[in-house]
Design a protein that fits this description.
The protein is mostly helical and 249 residues long. It contains 12 helices and 2 strands, in the order αααααααββααααα.
Amino acid sequence: MSQENDAKLWEDYAGNPSEINREKIVKRYLPLIKYVVGRMAVTPPPGLDYEDLLSFGVFGLLDAIDRFDLSKGFSFQTFAVPRIRGAVLDELRKCDWFSRTGREKVQKLNRAMEKVLRDEGHIKDELVMREMGVDEAEYFEVQELASRSYIASLDEVMELEDGDVSLEATLADDRESTLDRLEAEDDKELLMNAIKKLSEKEQQVLALYYYEGLSLKEIGRVIGVTESRVSQIHGKALSLLRAILKEEA
């Protein structure tokens, strides 16, 4: 559907917020839910399946539709993505999808990376492992947990003084207004500079995942490693970006 047709849908709904017009918007953006859930790389917990995750995403889509203000000139896709993802996460948390122990391990990794970066000015796996007091196997396990905990999103990584910034929000939609682009430019530059400090393999994984839209399994085929190893690289990259951005904020 063209941008003009999208605008017409929203204009009709703004002028007459009937159930019929609302349903048209819901149908128009249902594919966005599949896109968001697909990019979250989440394995449904026992008792749930992929269709359940999509249904959770519908709650976020409906919330986004109710809250969206067409007059502000923002892209609906950009506005809706974090709300869809948030709705899925809220429901998964109710199922205790990510355990307290898992969260504590990831927090320990983040703190260790921040300390090593602050003390040494660079990150080496050996130094982080020593700071954490873990062996290589445990270290890789926590990296994979980090990948899962971030749900394949950089939203939680961008902890800047002026508020959270989403990579998806700045890159996912080519139809942002000029004002949107200008406001996001400084944050994008900060993020891109931080990414340049990652290893070549880490940069490649992030580029294939966030820019090319490949799944972790597909990335594994491209770079010749297992899906689990890709998840570890992804988790380490996000934790390292968090540490770099916190150091420079």
